[in-house]
């Protein structure tokens, strides 16, 4: 299909009526977290939008971000959006491989220089000349620089591309960094999350398609429409927090009554994402609704921000700071801890054993 | 998605039948009331994106119950059904967009005389007239 085809032409060719288009726009507005009244504006501009070329580069990643996008329910708005863009290179999804695929990428970059949208998932390793991740013999660093040069804008999909993510976690053996650490002269939209919510990925693409501009961003480069509120602000359990009603263990009466998970380590108050309203798995639920604290996966360095099961108010001191004190107090503390855990174990045997946040901290065998 | 529906889940509805509406439901009802005021005073239509609201389990059911069912219901078949139902409050419509798999794609409360999805666009009317003329000429 010609790249000059507008989205409305594209839809008309598929026998899609005006009402369907209206529905598409209403659901797109909902998806982009825009006020419903924006549907008319979307209809007007989407009708005229041409299908932009998109190059999707996957670097040091787990393919979870692509899974998130492609495993959403179908037929979907996401698939319509993907039908509305011209996805010209995505090495997981494309049929071509090897030299042919790389040649196609270079051709697209040349034909659409300055106009294509570059989507990146995964971090970029810099250590030892970037040898830890290469595609067709080319380091991620070189490929990113080359592709970014002709891009109109870059969408960094997932926490790895946006902030370095898991690969960036201490001790960061590959020297992994975010896209924004390397590319300084192009607009970058960070769509963080591990993985990001599928409609957030397609919502950002829809925004670009609709308005031809990048959406308003927060100080971390994330679209405000999805990352403007914290999980805590939009959480249906928020009233319990305000009333001071907290679940203390994963199976106490408070947990069963759906009380706030703050004391079990919920990172909702410091995490900005749309999970609480957009939800996951066709709008079924989100982690907190399933009884688990938010891990804060859309925030920088979430992997190194202390235990997932420590309350935010718990000071997260560096382990090395504790080491010295532990050596001094070692002999005494060792015995005391042993006695204490013995006492705990027998008490737990008598009563029903509750799993506490502390137990989760200690890991298996605690 | 049928596989999710296969999982037996007991939904606790809260006390939708007996209790007074929760704070969240009351707030939405007040918002709808002021939208109706705007419709009466200036003819402005408005809508609420239901999925953008943080709701407690049971709130959604209670809201639907409180608004009730009116006399008009319509289905538009466009990339899967769209269910349009006038609520028990005149001028307040509950619009649910489904995809072809019957998953809810978006859900709105619309405050208007007729939801835009039902109206026939003038361009479509002209196209319809053209088609009818061709039909007459061909006979």
Please state roughly what percent of the residues of chain B sit in beta strands, choosing from under 5%, 5-15%, 15-25%, 25-35%, 35-45% or over 45%: 15-25%
Low confidence ranges of chain B:
none
In whole angstroms, the N-to-C terminal distance of chain B is: 47 Å
What amount of the residues of chain A lies in strands?
5-15%
- How far the N terminus sits from the C terminus of chain A, by CA atoms, comes to 59 Å
By DSSP, the count of extended strands of chain A is 9
Per DSSP, the total helix count of chain A is: 17
Q: What does the largest sheet of chain A look like?
A: 5 strands, parallel
Write out the strand line-up for the largest beta sheet of chain B, numbering strands in chain order: 1-5-4-3-2
Run of helices and strands of chain A: HHHEHHEHEEEEHEHHEHEHHHHHHH
From the spread of the alpha carbons, the general shape of chain A counts as globular
Number of helices of chain B: 4
* Low-confidence runs of chain A: 317-353
Largest interface: chains, residues each: A-B, 35 and 34 residues
Report the strand count of chain B: 5
- Helix residue percentage of chain A: 40-55%
